[in-house]
Amino acid sequence: MHGMPTALRLVLQIFIGVVIFGSALGKSLDLSGFVEVLRTYQAFPDFALWPLALAVTGFEFVLGVWLLSGWRLQTSALVALGLNAGYVVWMTISLLRGLELSNCGCFGVFFPQPLRWYSPLEDLVLVAMCYALSRYATARTGNASSSLNSSSAV
Description:
By secondary structure, this protein is mostly helical. It has five helices and no strands.
């Protein structure tokens, strides 16, 4: 079989989509709590905290649904890769700044996770999963289009 088995692609697609959607859900259940988490990063002016919280949460909701829908899977996987890579950079910089946070904000205030030295590594795993999903979507698209081309030539 060429590329990743369909079952594995589906597992990756659902897992990544649910994690991102769940992250947005956790943040949205107490948006003011998420704003307070953003404040602990000491990186944004107060006037920007609410718009940032709304933008991050809304973006994650849309991306989670997009991944779960399977529409333009390669693109959604690459967008998710970019999001998680951004989180890796953000957490690494925060750790290098010496911040000790009891809640990184990944899932809002209802499932608090402290910012630890291995927190960026967790997101790197998601980056790798997104990359694998995007590669499969590319291979699948390539195979599908070559199948269409060969059947139309017959």
